[in-house]
Design brief:
- This protein has helices spanning about 20-25, 55-65, 70-75, 80-85, 120-130, 150-165, 175-190, 205-210, 215-230, 245-260, 285-300, 315-325, and strands at about 70, 90-95, 95-100, 110, 135-140, 170, 195, 235-240, 265-270, 305.
- The chain is of the alpha/beta class.
- The strands form 2 sheets. The chain has an 8-stranded mixed sheet with strand order 1-2-5-6-7-8-9-10, sandwiched between helices. Strands 3-4 form a two-stranded parallel sheet.
- Strand 8 (about 235-240), helix 10 and strand 9 form a beta-alpha-beta unit.
- Helix 7 (about 175-190) packs parallel to helix 9 (about 215-230) and helix 10 (about 245-260) runs parallel beside helix 11 (about 285-300).
- It is globular and about 50 Å long.
């Protein structure tokens, strides 16, 4: 019998979700699960809110009724309880199956289902029902689509604006691969967001193991080219800490971001979703996050969110306030 970890891509059933070992088995740098005695203990400053409150349950009901997904749920975000409790969410469009196998991420891998053409309107209607003033729209990677899904994201922005003219919109996009990057930006520029976000995720030395299928320079160029096509839109990026990077590498990555005119930054602690994902090599202290925030502000970022529980869309409205004012 064929092991689920060795199924060739052509044999994966469309819509089937591969997680954990089944997801990471085919990446270039293999992951050997750590023995329990080598796993770092979480420090006391990493605490997540309880995700089972009535507010969280009510919001999940609204999302399911409208056939919508959130990255909060699919990526097992530790802030789900807090954000859902406030009635905020980061919407995940184009399905809940990603064509990439990034071993830091808990979103399932596989052959995605066809796009739901009604999703943009469902999204817009849900945002209207929730009365949201600031929304983040993100997506899985859709390398199976000619435009990487840029047209669908643009339609989501268009529909949301039409139904919610006073709502500010941030999009957190894939890299669209090198071959489709410029075309994707031209599509997105037809209905530009208020903030454009794309995460570098880590330092360039760790790309092969953390972001197989991605390219550090391509991600930087995406953010630079967005500025050229949408000069009034602030750009934003983030990296997670704790994968084995050095302080010098982090600082150099921040300098690279500023060279590519990135306005906003998020720095957060990487947390291992399962033993089949990349291990946590270090837990940064609150003091270290503050030190990196000071360095980033000195480099000229308009807004820096730095802390163990910070994620790219965590308190995104607060992060964007200064950049949008400018």
């Amino acid at each position: 019998m064929t092991s689920s970890t060795n199924i060739p891509p052509s044999k994966i059933t469309q819509g089937e979700k591969l997680r954990g070992e089944a997801k990471t088995a085919r990446i270039p740098v293999k992951i050997a699960p750590q023995p329990k005695e080598q796993v770092l203990r979480k420090p006391n400053w990493i605490r997540a809110s309880f995700p089972g409150t009535p507010e969280v349950i009510a919001l999940k009901k609204i999302l399911r009724e409208n056939k919508l997904h959130t990255v909060c749920e699919e990526a097992a975000c530790p802030n789900l309880g807090e954000c859902f409790g406030k009635g905020t969410a980061t919407f995940l469009v184009m399905g809940d199956i990603c064509t990439r196998r990034c071993p830091f991420c808990d979103v399932a891998h596989g052959r995605p289902n066809p796009l739901d053409e009604s999703e943009p309107q469902h999204l817009a209607d849900t945002i209207q029902k929730m009365g949201l003033r600031y929304v983040v729209i993100t997506s899985v990677n859709r390398d199976d689509l000619r435009d990487g899904g840029a047209g669908h994201i643009m339609q989501c922005v268009k529909a949301t604006r039409a139904a919610n003219p006073n709502t500010q919109i941030e999009i957190l996009t894939p890299d669209f691969r090198g071959r489709t990057r410029k075309a994707a930006i031209e599509i997105l520029a037809q209905n530009p967001p208020d903030v454009f976000n794309h995460n570098l995720e880590t330092v360039p030395r760790l790309y092969k193991q953390a972001r197989p299928g991605a390219d550090y320079v391509v991600s930087l160029e995406l953010l630079r080219d967005v500025k050229a096509h949408m000069p009034g839109v602030p750009t934003k990026s983030g990296i997670m800490l704790g994968l084995g990077e050095t302080t010098e590498e982090v600082v150099q990555t921040l300098k690279d971001m500023r060279e590519y005119d990135i306005d906003m930054l998020t720095l957060g602690q990487y947390l291992q979703p399962s033993r089949h994902h990349l291990a946590v090599e270090k837990y940064y202290t609150p003091e270290e996050f503050e030190q990196l925030k000071t360095i980033a502000e000195d480099l000229g970022f308009e807004n820096v969110a730095s802390g163990a529980m910070v994620r790219s869309s965590y308190h995104a409205d607060e992060q964007a306030e200064k950049a949008l004012a400018n």
